[in-house]
Amino acid sequence: MLATLMQALDTTIANVALPDMQGALSATQDQAAWVLTSYIVAAAILTPVTGWLAGRLGRRRLLIVAVSGFTAASLLCGIATGIGQMVLFRILQGVFGASLVPISQSLLLDAFPREKHGAAMAMWGMGIMVGPILGPPLGGYLTQYYSWHWVFLINLPVGILALVGIAASVKPEAPHRRPLDGTGLALLALGIGGLQLFLDRGQSQDWFGSLEIQVEAAFAFLALYLYGLWWWNRRDRALLDLGLLGNRNFAVGCVLIFVVGIVLFATLALLPPYLSALMHYPVLTIGLVLAPRGVGTMFAMMLVGRMLGRVDARIPILAGMGLIVYSLYGMAGFGTEASVQAVVWLGVAQGVGLGLVFVPISTVAYSTLPPWQRTEAASIFSLVRNIGSSVGISIVFTLLARAGQVNHAEIGARIPAYGAEQTLVPALWNPATATGAALLDGELLRQSAAIGYANDFWLMTVLTLCAMPLVLLMHSGRHGPAPGPGMAAEAH
After folding, report:
1. Is there a domain that residue 22 lies in?
2. How far apart are CA 136 and CA 290, in angstroms?
3. Most buried in the list 104, 120, 147, 463, measured by CB within 10 Å?
4. Which pTM does this prediction carry?
5. Is residue 12 located within the same domain as residue 121?
6. Contact 9/139 with Cβ under 8 angstroms?
7. What span, in angstroms and rounded, lies between the C-alpha atoms of 268 and 55?
C-alpha cells in the first residue's frame, strides 16, 4: 500500500507546484508541462512490461528495485537545478513507478485467501484512490509553506519505510524465465507512448491542426493495430496477453475502471481551476474544501471491504455509481456561485461513490482468473485506468476551452447595444468606455467558463449512467472458481 500510495500521489502532487518550478528552473510554460507529461508517458510505456519483468526477476526483487529506483529518482527531482534534469529524472520516476501498482496488487491477492480479497483490496485501494485526491492539497501546502522541492522529497521517508516492509514481509519466489518479445515491446512502446502524448498535448497544440499531433495519432493507431496482429499470430509468446480480455469479469472490470479513471481524474482536474478562477478561493482553501472527498473514499473502502464476500459485489458497485451520478449532477448546477457546503457535500458523496465502486471492481475483475495470470492482468488493468484518466482530462479541457470560445461569442452577440436598452446592462459595464467594456468582457468570460464546466460535468454524468448496465454482466464475486490442477499444469 505504501508503494502504491507513493506512486499514485506523484500523478497529481506536482501539478500545484508547476508554476513555482517553472520560475525556479527558468522554463517556459510548454517546457514545464513536460514535467507532468514525461512521467505519465514513461509509466504508461513500461506498465505492459511488468508481467515479463516479474517473471524474469521475481516479484519481490522487482518490487524492491522499483521502490528503490522511484525513491532515488524522487530525490534527484527534488535537487534538480534545470528543466532538462527535471524532465530526465521524472522519466526515471515513471520507469520505476510503472511496476509498483500491478506488482503490489498481484502480491496482495496472492497473500490473502479468496474470501479476504475484498478486505485486502480495500486497504490497497486507499493508496491508489486517496493518493491522487490528497495530491493537490498536499502539494499546495508544501509549496506554500516550504518549497516545491518538498513535493518530491516527501517520497523519501515513505519509500524507505516501504522498502523495510517489503524486505521483512514479502517472500522471494523462483523466477520464470521467458524470452523477451522485442517486437511486441517496440510496438506497444510506440503505440502507448504515441497515444499518451496525443492525449496529453492535443489541447495545447490545437489537436489535428498540429503536425506533431497528427504524427503521434498515426503512430499510436498503427502500432497498436500491428500489436493486435502480432499477438494474434503468436499468442503464447507475446509480451502482453490480450486474451485475458476474453474473460467476461475482467473485460467488464476494465471498461468500468476506464470510466472510473475518467471521472476521478477529470473531476480532480476541473474542480481546482473552477474554485480558483470562478470562486476566487486561495490554494489552501481549495485543498481544505476538496480534502473531505478523500475521507469519504477511505470510509467507503473500509465499509465495502467488510461487505464483500457477504453480499453480491454488484450491489455496492451500482450504489457507488449512483452516488457518482448524483454528485456530478449536482456539480453541473454549480454555475458561477457555489456554496462551500455544496462543494464539500458533493465531494464527499463522490468520494464515497468512488470507494464503493473501486474495491468491488478490483476484486471481481480477478475473481475468475487463475493466480499466475494476475500480474499480467494487473498490468492491463492499471494501463486501462491510466489511459482512462488521460482520455478524461483531455476531453474535459478540450470541451472547456472550446465551450468558452463559443459561449463567449454567442452571449456577446445577444448583449444589446448600450443606449435604448441600457437598463439591461449595469451602468458600470457601459461598453462605450474602456473600463466598462473590460468589466463586461470579464463577466462574459466568467459566464462562458461556467457553462463549459457545467457541460463537462453533464458529460461525465451521462457516461457514468451509460456504464451502469454493464455491472449486471459481471459475476457476483461471491463464489469465484478456484483454479484446478489442469490450470496449474497449463501455467507451466
Report:
1. yes
2. 9
3. 104
4. 0.77
5. yes
6. no
7. 35
pLDDT on residue 424 = 59
The closest alpha carbon to 404, from 369, 354, 341, 454, belongs to 454
pLDDT at 358 over 80: yes
Burial 389-416 (b: 16+ CB within 10 A, else e): bbbbbbbbbebbeebbeebbeeeeeeee
Number of domains comprising the chain: 3
Where in the sequence is the domain holding 208, given as residue range(s)?
Answer: 182-238
Q: In whole angstroms, what is the distance from residue 86 CA to residue 445 CA?
A: 35
What integer pLDDT is reported at residue 486 of this predicted model?
34
Tally Cβ neighbours within 10 Å of residue 31.
15
Structural domain ending residue among the three candidates 164, 180, 196: 180
Torsion of CA 130, 133, 136, 138, to 10 degrees: -30
pLDDT of residue 463: 92
pLDDT of residue 489: 33
Asked if residues 471 and 314 have their Cβ atoms less than 8 Å apart, the reply is yes
Which of these ranges, 151-160, 170-179, 261-270, 464-473, has the smallest mean pLDDT? 170-179
CATH number for position 87: 1.20.1250.20
Q: DSSP 3-state assignment of 430? A: coil
The residue behind cell 486501462 is 384
pLDDT for 487 equals 31
